[in-house]
Predict the structure.
Amino acid sequence: MLYYLSIKGKQKLKGSVCISGAKNSALPLLAATLLSKNKITLSNIPNVVDVKTLLKLLENLGAKTELNGSVVSVDTTPVKSACANYDIVRKMRASILTLGPLLARFGHCEVSMPGGCAIGQRPIDLHLKALEQMGATIELKQGYVVAKAPDGLKGTTIIFDKVTVTGSENILMAAALAHGVTKLVNVAKEPEVVQLCEVLRDAGVKIEGIGTSKITIVGSYGELLDIKDTKVIPDRIEAGTYLCAGAITNSKITITDVIHSHLESIILKLEQMGFGFETGENSVTLLPASKIEASDIETSEYPGFPTDMQAQFMALCTQASGTSIIDERLFENRFMHVSELARMGANIKLKGHSATVEGDMELRAADVMATDLRASSALILAALVAEGTTKVHRIYHLDRGYENLEGKFSALGADIQRLEE
Ligand code: UD1
């Protein structure tokens, strides 16, 4: 069944919204269950399609999984197959996270080349190069990565040419079971990478440099780990998206169940744009701006401004006073929301990796199409301030990463409905 979202604009928001667990932390933690010698329970799991896809992949490999609300238990002890097949992997790029753990555990594996968000080429060369440096032989056969390391992966020094989030996670998991010491340089510092490191540390893996770009990890010589039950950290991108919803409608809203420090670059940018904040222990309240100021944005790795918030801020900049320039530094083709925003009356000029966004725009409702996960949320934000009723189609992109989106927006007072196409 295909659905679209119907959103009537020009409503103020108010109240509070509870932020779910982070999809981008849940996925590597689920992949890490392949390293475990016992059944693991993960809590604060977001109910989103990407998580279900990975659970399906684990089951397909032979694992037993049980999802109850936001709690999932995973037992990978029955896993015998090391082949992650195309039908599941093509649905989600992050399936590649099973490559490191499967290879480290079985000494061989076949993982289909990933699909997922259409935001540029998104290669996996850095994952493969690092595994080769650890002694694996890798061939690409009929769309599959066929990896072998019959005598186990060997610890070594790996310098990542670029900061890669899932690449870092993949190699951290591989290194946890490797023979000897692995030194990783230019590692991603995202909170989701940090949580994975902490889970490995709590499982008894010796790991130094957590949260920095240089990590040393002592492998277990192939012995499976005693991974402990874990609560997934809050989703900083979902949190940022709701803060932007409050901002674009210039409303007072509160997000709860968040970690304030993970939101620093997003809050700082909103402050520069004129919004105020009150922070509680696990909550953040956005206060309306007297005037929304234009602001230039450049995406970068954590702790910089996240590329996963670029589309949402672009929608917000259409309502600012003046011109904003948005530089996308991580992905070369992450501007597909621009043409859809233009259909709603936005004036955005693209040149290379830079977008010039004119502010003070009167947006109008239109039929628009979601093109990737975060682009979809930018269209919802634009719809909140547009004149009339916007229809956002292809929302399966949105369901990959946002839990109960229309329920949460409705609770904030938005007029939003999920309807059949
Ligand atoms: C992760 C996040 C995604 C976020 C992105 C950047 C997950 C599941 N997804 O994606 O939401 O947008 O980080 O913060 O956590 N690159 C290469 N070769 C590689 C790997 C990456 O050239 O082998 C390049 C990419 O094309 C991109 C940059 O490195 O330009 C960063 O990508 P990366 O951090 O790997 O993104 P993902 O881990 O896929």
Observations:
- The longest helix spans residues 49-61.
- The first strand starts at residue 3 and ends at 8.
